[in-house]
Write a structure and sequence with these properties.
Helices cover about 35% and strands about 30% of the residues. The chain is of the alpha+beta class. It has two domains: about 35 residues; about 110 residues, Nucleic acid-binding proteins (OB fold (Dihydrolipoamide Acetyltransferase, E2P)), CATH 2.40.50.140.
């Protein structure tokens, strides 16, 4: 084999290795990527039915029901609502009327089964996506009430 052919084979082999590595990294990244949806987006059918995602908003007042370690509550963005169930210990800061982000899957009936529940960590914090969704829902409600 001539030196020129060896050099070409090394370059082609290196490019193939880089391409294969990039494929594996991007594939792992895609499978671990978790998207955020609001109750309004879930109602419109934008959320996937067979993948894990996050839903965020406020815990509706009077919606929390506990049976042993299973908690059922409603997450709202003031426009739409999603029923959520979670089995486990809720965070200490979890309260009705406060912000929450739940991670899990949506079943075929539109019920969200959470595998993880995150509560806001102080009075002023809300995830940016949830705050934006709440602002958009309030604008939509104000527009409806003006008509």
């Amino acid at each position: 084999m001539k030196p020129r052919q060896k050099r070409a084979a090394i370059i082609v082999g290196g490019l193939a290795a880089v391409g294969l590595s990039a494929y594996f990294v991007l594939n792992a990244f895609e499978s671990n990527l978790v998207f955020f949806f609001t109750p309004s987006q879930i109602e419109l059918g934008e959320a996937p039915k067979d993948r894990t995602f996050r839903v965020g908003g406020m815990v509706k007042e009077g919606s929390l029901q506990r049976v042993n370690l299973t908690s059922n509550f409603v997450v709202t963005d003031t426009a739409k609502e999603v029923k959520v169930s979670y089995t486990g210990i809720l965070p200490d800061l979890f309260k009705e009327g406060k912000g929450v982000v739940a991670q899990g899957k949506l079943d075929s009936s539109g019920h969200f089964a959470a595998s993880e529940v995150l509560a806001k960590h102080d009075e002023n914090y809300m995830p940016p996506e949830a705050q934006h969704a709440m602002d958009q829902a309030q604008i939509a409600n104000a527009t409806k009430s003006l008509k």
